[in-house]
Amino acid sequence: METTPEIKSIYSFPLQELTLELEKRGEKSYRANQIFEWLYVKKAKSWEEMTNLSKELRSELSAHFFLSLPKIFHKEESKDGTIKLLLEMEDGAKVETVLMRYDYGNAICVSSEVGCSMGCAFCASGLLKKERGLTAGEMVGQVLLMDEILESELERVSHVVVMGTGEPFDNYDEVMKFISIINENKGLAIGARHITVSTCGLPDGIRKYAHSGLQINLAISLHAPNDEIRAKLMPIARKYPLSELMDAIREYLEVSGRRVTYEYIMLKGINDSLDCAHELVSLIKGTFGYVNLIPFNPVKEKPFVRAERKNVEKFRDYLNDHGVKCTIRKEFGTDIDAACGQLRVKVERGAKK
Ligand code: SAH
What we know:
Blueprint: E1 8-9, H1 15-24, H2 30-41, H3 55-64, E2 65-66, E3 71-77, E4 83-88, E5 94-102, E6 105-109, E7 113-114, E8 132-133, H4 136-151, E9 159-162, H5 172-183, E10 195-199, H6 203-210, E11 217-221, H7 227-233, H8 236-239, H9 242-256, E12 260-266, H10 274-284, E13 290-295, H11 309-321, E14 326-328, H12 342-352
Parallel strand pairs: 1-2, 6-9, 9-10, 10-11, 11-12, 12-13, 13-14
Antiparallel strand pairs: 3-4, 4-5, 5-6, 7-8
Helix pairs in contact: 1-2, 4-5, 6-9, 10-11
């Protein structure tokens, strides 16, 4: 019985996989390099543009692969230059992506799933449950669309953080393909040290990542110095206590030789005391990790209040004085619903009313 060949986005293929696809079709492997150059260096929008490929190959490719980017459904731009896009995928699913402008470059915060099932108490993304993981191509599309916007300024995306909606280690394989595609020298060539994956702390994912040999950065959403507070904020902490999470992080450190960044949202009256800072030091000291304190981005539907600036600074100073390197994260686009998932919730809920 004949089956219909699966049509996939061409943007979902790492160079090695694309090479195999072409070899399968009797083509020379260097064709994959040429296609990568068209897609990621010359930013071709159609197969016709790829003039160094034969007409036959172009028509073969167009029969088997999509060459289209997500649609921009909604765009917001903040006074500080932060850009937030709500993108619509082929099946109508909507995801957010944010561009932040740092002194050192243009960083994009990529979503890895449509909605999120982790249910963190402070996060807007989880207000809409996970529908599916994004494909590598849909994540690549987020970067390419921001590149298109930046082109008029003669700029490009230089840094990628997988910190948008979704849990990247819940969509491990596609996220790894995505990283391979954007890191590829013959393509976008975004350096491994310029790419960060952020996880709520899935120990199996951390171990797998440790053994992947990738030199990209890993961030852990810790948010609490003990299981009691963490379990109130993050349901995943009930499944994996801190002892298990810290074991996985130590393994990562040993295998990869790389330090993690701990993310810690400062919530008033919940995790912002100096007692918490003291506990945090004993929890993470041996892991040589670096702490990034995140000012809570208020979410209308959530009861939390951001910690006072002076307490955040005291917390930071305590950590630095006790041998744990700590900084306070710079804020972007607070005037445009830049917190994870906020724009999508606003648009989707608004549309349903
Ligand atoms: N699931 C992954 C990545 C997505 S969340 C993770 O948990 O790390 C990316 C980061 O944004 C996490 O550290 C998350 O805890 C944080 N975050 C979520 N909602 C926030 C809010 N309202 N204000 C500030 N940070 C928030």
